[in-house]
Design goal:
The chain is of the alpha/beta class. It has helices at residues 15-32, 50-62, 80-86, 122-135, 151-156, 171-174, 217-227, 244-252, 263-272, 297-312, 318-330; strands at 95-99, 102-103, 107-109, 119-120, 141-145, 162-163, 178-179, 184-186, 188-193, 209-213, 236-241, 258-262, 276-279, 286-288, 291-292. The chain starts with 14 loop residues before the first helix and ends in an 18-residue tail after the last helix. Helix 4 packs across helix 10 (297-312) and helix 9 (263-272) packs across helix 11.
Length: 348
């Protein structure tokens, strides 16, 4: 019933002056010369060269209003990033992916599966799909556990090829990494004990201790709202943790009064602990995307092509993964979680 999963352990993670002048001109010319790579696209959304695509992404980040739309159009062609992944030899010929191992039903190890617990969940299904397309083997993956606040540095440092870890696409992150088109829709929501007098994202948060993950969208949203005098103005935001599951532990120990995280993650945590529940409705709308290096244009396009096919696959695609992993916690109606039809950057 489930897609094949990888058995893996986590690791880690004068004349001279004239010559100099001529060389400088040559370097400058090389930098300015676009590397043109045609994919035969007729809609004007194809690659206009590595430099052109990066220019689009840089301008998109600076003028960002709809971050989920700031990605490159799908393309199944190979390129330098994909070629480098395939060039790895022997046991190292794997896709290196940053994931979570503690997010129930997203990326986690089932404690009931024995000593050799395998990583599984919605995000893990997507990783296997990407590996199957690029390397021809869904199990050709090296998983690396990445804390929330290390997702962007892990990509920039080259420790991973991509991060698939319930990572929200937003304007700030677009300045540092490239994203795929969205593969899931969610929003920030409150999780608190059922006995709590907190009713939602409102004035009942005054004086309450709220836990968030360091480097998360939740934390940045709350800090901004607090600065603006919003619902979080009277709350204590002093508790941050490396991983989102740590917030649930803090809540269980009574060290905080509530957790703010993506509603999709909060629902999964509520499924783990029947003494807590979601409070109120989501107060933002956000989208998860696959994060990659900003210059990995071929990989971004390839992942976007894979996402198109994954969503269209009726037998083992997006809907199948939702039903297996998420419907027990989030309900059978997947329409509120499925992102809208993707939109892509186009050449100017």
């Amino acid at each position: 019933m489930r897609a094949r999963r990888l058995r893996t352990g986590l690791r880690g993670w004068g004349g001279v002056g004239a010559m100099a002048f001529a060389c400088a001109l040559a370097v400058l010319f090389a930098l300015l010369l676009p590397v043109v790579r045609s994919h035969g696209e007729s809609d004007g959304a194809g690659t206009g060269g590595q430099g052109a695509a990066q220019g689009h992404q840089a301008r998109a980040a600076e003028e960002c209003t709809d971050p989920e739309k700031q990605t490159l159009s799908p393309d199944g062609a190979d390129g330098p990033t994909i070629d480098a992944i395939r060039a790895r030899e022997g046991a190292k010929r794997k896709l290196i992916v940053g994931v979570d191992q503690n997010s129930y039903r997203w990326g986690y190890r089932d404690p009931n599966s024995g000593g050799d617990a395998q990583l599984e969940g919605f995000d893990i299904d997507l990783v296997h799909r990407i590996a199957e397309d690029i390397l021809g083997d869904p199990d050709a993956v090296q998983f690396k556990a990445i804390p929330t606040d290390q997702r962007v540095p892990a990509i920039q440092d080259g420790r991973v090829d991509m991060v698939v870890r319930t990572m929200t696409v937003n304007c700030d992150r677009l300045a540092d990494v490239a994203f795929s088109s969205p593969y899931f829709r969610t929003g920030q929501q409150l999780l608190a004990p059922k006995s709590s007098d907190i009713t939602g994202y409102d004035d009942t948060l005054s004086g309450k201790r709220i836990c968030t993950a360091a480097g998360s969208t939740a934390l940045s949203t709350l800090k901004q709202d607090q600065a603006d005098g919003g619902a979080a103005a009277g709350a204590d935001l002093g508790t941050t943790v490396p991983n989102q599951l740590d917030c649930l532990v803090r809540l269980q120990l009574g060290e905080v009064d509530a957790v703010v995280t993506d509603g999709a993650l909060a629902a999964s945590q509520a499924a783990q602990d029947p003494t807590v529940e979601l409070k109120g409705d989501p107060f933002t709308t956000e989208y998860y995307g696959v994060a990659m290096k900003k210059d990995a244009d071929d990989l971004v396009r390839r992942v976007n092509q894979i996402l198109v096919e994954w969503r269209a696959d009726k037998s083992r695609g997006w809907q199948h993964s939702y039903e297996v992993w998420l419907s027990p916690a989030m309900g059978d109606d997947s329409r509120k979680s499925e992102p809208p039809a993707p939109q892509y950057l186009r050449r100017s």
